[in-house]
Every structure is written in C-alpha cells, then in structure tokens.
Amino acid sequence: MPRREIEGDWVMGWPDRKRYRLAPSKDQEGRTIHARTPFLELEGLITPTDAYYIVAQLQMPEPVHPEDYTFEIFGEVENPMTYTLEDLRKLPGHTVRAVTECAGDDTEFWDYLESRKKGGNIPKPSRQVREDVEGVDWHGMADNDDLDMEELNALIPATCIVSGGEWTGTRLGEVLNRAGVKDSAVAIRVEGFDMGRPDPTIQYRSVGRTDFEVHDPGVINYDKGLPIEKAMDPETILAWAHNGEYMTHVHGAPVRMVVPGWAGNWWVKWIHKIEVMDHMPDCYHQTHYFVSGKGPDDPNKEMMTALGVKTVITEPLEEESPLPKGSYAIRGLAWSGEGAMVRVEVSTDNGETWNDAHIEEHADRFLWRRWSYLWEATLGHHTLMARGTDEKGRKQPVTEWNFQRKHFDGIVPVDIEIE
Ligand SMILES: Nc1nc2c(c(=O)[nH]1)N[C@H]1C(S)=C(S)[C@@H](COP(=O)(O)O)O[C@H]1N2
Ligand SMILES: [Mo]
Question: Which atom of ligand 1 is the closest one to the Cα of 161?
Fold first, then answer.
C-alpha cells in the first residue's frame, strides 16, 4: 500500500513542508475553497486541519477580522444580544470531538451497490489517490487552478468528504439560555455571512436527471433552521477553535456551529445571525436541498438530519488485489449520527457469516472509532464486508435511498483475490 506519510519527509525528514491537499480547487485569486480528506492515508482519529475537507455551497466569503466580528441573537428571546468573539470566549467552554461528514459523501456508492445487485457494471468508486486522470491533481499541492469543483466532480467520485475533528467553543444552549429563549421557540435560524445563488445544476447532478424544475431562491445567505431540541443539546456548540488552534477561515472563522451527529450542512460556518423562531424557517438548504424523498415531486420530502450508521473498510483494498496468502488486518473506521459505535462485524464470505471486529474504545460518542479484524486469508476469491451497530441499536444501513442520494451508509463489499 502506498503510504506517502511514511515515505515522505513528514516521517523521514524534517517536517517543515506543507501538507498536500486532496482534490483541491481554488478561486480566481488562487485560494483553496474546496478540498477532500486523504482518507486512506491517515492514522488515528483526528484529521489534521490542513487535510480536513472543505465545502462551501455559495461564494466563499472574505475573512472577517476576529476583532471586528460580531453576531446577533434575537427573535423569540427576552434579551436580544450582540456578541463579540471575546464575549463568547468568556462563557464556560466546551470541547467536542466529532465526525464532520458532507451529506453527499460517497453518493456514487448508491448507484454502484444497486448496479452490483443487478449484475450491472457500474465501476466501484475509488477512495484512492489517483494520478492517472489528466489535469486532476487528486493529491496535489492545490495547484490545479484551472478546474472548478464541477469539473473535478465529473472526473473523480464524490468521496473522502468526511473528517474527524476536535472543536472548541461554548455550548449553543448557554448562549440561548442567556438570551432567555421564550416557550414559543421551535427552531433557531442560523445564518452565515456568505452569500450566493445556489447552482441548480448541482441539484440535477445529485438527482441524476434534468427533467424537473428546481427551486431557484436567487441570491441568499447560507442558513439552516436547527430544531430547538438539537440547539439545546449539550454537545451542540458555537466553536472558534479547531484541532487545538483558532479555526481557519475556510472552516467558518470566527465562529461556526458544530452539530455532532448531523450532516456537515448543519454546521453553519461564518455565523452572523441567530434568530430564535416560533416556526421552522423555509431555508433553501433544508426544504429544497438536503431533503429525503423518492423524487423531486414526492410530497413527503423531509429535511435530512442525523447521519446513518456507517463503516468503511480502509484495508485491504481492491486496488491491492491480488494479495499473497497470509494474515491480514481488515480494518477501517465506523461512525454514527446518533452516538457511539458499539459493534462492528466483518464477513469474508460475501455476507454468509459474520465475526465481531475489535473496536478501539474511547469516550467521544460522535467521533468515529477504529476497528480491525485479523483474517487468515486462504486461496481464492473473497468478498469482504463490514457492518456496524450504534449505541441506539441502529444497524447499518439505516438511510433509505433518496432521490438526492444523500447520507450514503450502505454495506460496501471489497473483492480480494488471494493467490
Ligand atoms: N455558512 C456556510 N456554512 C456551511 C456551508 C456553507 O456553504 N456556508 N456548507 C456546509 C456544508 S454542505 C458542509 S459539508 C460543511 C463543511 O464544513 P467544512 O468545510 O469545515 O469541512 O459546512 C457547512 N456549513
Ligand atoms: Mo456538505
């Protein structure tokens, strides 16, 4: 297995280089505005900040100096307030370690699994670094200025849009309590200071067809209407630090929301308004995008919230097959949108029989867990699988197929030949 971190000067020399970004794309001024996580090349639980994935739905805003920064909290509260970053930092702190996963992570795996079931031939999306696609520096130093996100998406699968991080801030509930939330509160509308017009082609691409009308909201600020119960959850925070340092601009500085368990799109970055409301607001990225349903015309579309239950096999990979006879650690990561992963089972015979894997225990319920299973591999073809169960008893997969193909958490087989 190619292990750049071991072969490169991070381990073998003086670690003064800048880390590579995976599939970076840049704005016209050459600044990185999107990137993925080199998922297969990392060890441990925390994704280093410069390997953390980056997504912006609208225009990436200009940075705001922490000293000039304020946000307001108003609406269904007794005391509307304006906070500076310093005001916020005076409140009791709270740190959470949690997985951030984009709702669209692994979206092509929906089609791959469906096709495989029917004996079709859609190729398996690969999480491996690719150097064979011309013009795409899938693992480059952010130097492919000529490609925008759309072109990148057409060339490489939508995978590796997931990271694990440590976020430091204060509880959102603390800020809400200080404002005196009224009983009428149902949701909080959290608005970022980034603006833009959502690109309708993104909708068409995630649905996979163009024969329907998409809602065009025009130019909007990014916003989400978080239900009050989740806003008051002690693990939901307003964060200003990430992985032990002040948060970087691309991740939402000066202050972003961290909503452990819920898909990345709830983690509103660059917060400038928190409006407490007595009804659910009609936010584009909540009622039109990131919704469940069988099709764009389904009358029962609902906002998507918690991630499902997911395991990913990181070793071995199809790309390494065939392998010599011997013993191998089948290993990977597992996470859930509703708390800790308590069980991972592995099958080496296409799901006929299952064995418990070892799970690395730790205290952070919303952070992924590493797991492994020692496999004595015999000659022949083997189909490996892993499936997880979380502390709520939810068994993978829990997310139903939806027309936007979001929140993929299916069981993905790995075909290995032993010779
Ligand atoms: N203000 C704002 N917040 C946002 C977004 C955005 O476009 N604007 N994108 C969301 C989406 S879709 C994801 S997946 C996460 C990505 O967070 P990250 O870039 O820090 O990894 O931020 C979310 N928060
Ligand atoms: Mo996302």
Answer: 14
